[in-house]
Amino acid sequence: MIRFENVGLRYGLGPEVLSDVSFHLPAKSFQFLTGPSGAGKTTLLRLLFMSLKPTRGVISLFGRERTAITRAELPMIRRKIGVVFQDFRLLDHLTTFENVALPLRVRGRDAASYTKDVRDLLEWVGLGDRMHVYPPVLSGGEKQRASIARALIEQPELLLADEPTGNVDPPLARRLLKLFIELNKLGTAVVIATHDLGLMEQVDARRMVIHDQRVEIYD
């Protein structure tokens, strides 16, 4: 589904942040992306989401080379990707329910067709009693769960999660990890960027380790 070949990325005239990165990301796969702070985990996720262009090398996504994808085509292809950002990116003027339902509204879905799905997902992530409140009154962990629910609501082909359990306690972290695993069983490829070794030890999954600007794969 995703292919990187000798990909390099630098900002401006500085040294490469990622260098000669090559890997294949199969459909329906599950992997952790790890490495020390500042190694480039978020940068790699941004390349996968196509919010960054590589300085060199070839990236193919869903059968298309990145350089052949036009600006007009980007939104349609990005709909295949769910993203959980570290900064949540919730809209303060929308309720928790409305934030999670937003991707469906943007696609023109009628509220009657998705209300139950959104409610069920919010119940699952522990926000059933918070669905009608606004983000400013949510805790950091609650905002994280709302962000995860929004990324999952369309059952994307690829889910990118940047430290998705960083603001929740261990029991909820395990529950969210179980949700990612169940989503993967339904056919979504999952990439979880994390430095939490305890989290990674709970799943027998592929590990992508960023070290010295390169990515090493451990199956």
Give a quick set of tags describing it:
alpha/beta; Rossmann fold; 219 residues; six-stranded mixed sheet; 32% helix; 7 helices; single chain; four-stranded antiparallel sheet
* CATH architectural type: 3-Layer(aba) Sandwich
CATH level 1 class label: Alpha Beta
Domain unit count: 1
Q: How many helices?
A: 7
Helix- and strand-based class? alpha/beta
Describe, in plain words, how this protein is organized in 3D.
It is built from seven helices and ten strands. It has helices spanning 41-48, 74-78, 96-106, 111-124, 140-152, 170-185, 197-200; strands at residues 2-10, 16-25, 30-34, 56-61, 64-65, 81-84, 158-162, 189-193, 206-211, 214-218. A six-stranded mixed beta sheet has the order 6-7-8-3-9-10, with helices on both faces.
Concise synopsis of the structure shown:
With 219 residues, the chain is an alpha/beta fold. It has helices at 41-48, 74-78, 96-106, 111-124, 140-152, 170-185, 197-200; strands spanning 2-10, 16-25, 30-34, 56-61, 64-65, 81-84, 158-162, 189-193, 206-211, 214-218.
